[in-house]
Amino acid sequence: MALFNRRKKTDDASESQTPIEADAPDERAEQEQPPSEPVPEIGISVQAFRGVGAAAGPEVKLPDPDEPAPNTPSPIAAPRPTASGASVPTAPEKRTLPLAPALPPAQTESVPGMKDNVLLRTALAEIEEGATNEQLIGVLRQMLQGHLFLRVSGDARTQISEGKPLSVAVVRDGERAYMLAFSSAVAVRDSVQRETEPTATSAVAQPVTAVLQQVVSGGFSGLIIDNASGAHRAVFSIEILTKALEQADPGMTIKSLLSAPREQDTARKVGDALAKTKVWVAVNDGTEGAKVGIAEAHTADGRRFLQVFSHPLEVVALGRGDKPMPFTPEQLAKLLTSHASLAGVLVDSAGPSLIVERDALAAVIVLAVDLGD
User: Fold this and answer.
1) How far are the Cα atoms of 90, 99, 124, 175, 316 from residue 95, in angstroms, in the given order?
2) CB count, 10 Å around CB of 276?
3) pTM above 0.90, yes or no
4) Of 334, 146, 166, nearest in space to 252 by CA
């Protein structure tokens, strides 16, 4: 945790503090002043993420996680991402939103002792004034891993040790209250430096799921990421955060493994996670007589890998017009055993991504044996 002092205010947004566990917006309204500039809304629909690909293209509807998956289609080949002889697909040709390399970025500490959320910070750096839906989708998908920093009034360590709720920063826009979160401790410091009062402020890192659960359950209108970053900040409504959280793995197991430094057993750990966690696959719409199927990727050496995704946003981020479909571990096991030519799976091809070959998918394949297949 780091402590900062508020300095001269240079921004036109008013910030205040409220307990993280507060759940009564009316009580918060008595403590806070509205910002002098409106908090911008984003244009991502709650029912569907639009704006990916052609403007007149079909909506990409996020499936209901409780809805039974349709019969498993046959795998289909996505455009071959061949560049070299390496078994890692290249990125899509049109990069209209923040994507990421296959390997996770090197970890950095913009404030010593506090690791940045590098993927989120990088995605935010790529957006500009009037960010498109595609760019905001890119930021949101990278936010759904790792941790976020919260700005706390006073010493967060003391509040935690005393069992008190954290007094986190909130921006108000009339009757709407937005919690503040940050991609790095230095982004917290930038926010603090815009203040005039000399009150001490601290930064504390929290798992992203814990932060989102507090936003959803706390009566907030949404979340602002890196509010002092000008055009590089992002604002997400409570509706879109609720939908994204509902469809995420509560432990973010796969995303956490993909965003962490690679280890010798990373592929096996992801394979084990795939045996316990529902994922998503990309399904084409079957238009113009095309056979409906699940997207796969081919490597330069001709091997075939089924594409699976940790969240439906990962499918939408590719901009191919595919629809995300929930896929259980048992369905994945059945598909792998019935298509012996598949060399394994490619996880989250928008990056960070990982190829998991059959020998690391033993925990998945055994599920098909248990089912009698």
Assistant:
1) 12, 7, 15, 38, 13
2) 14
3) no
4) 146
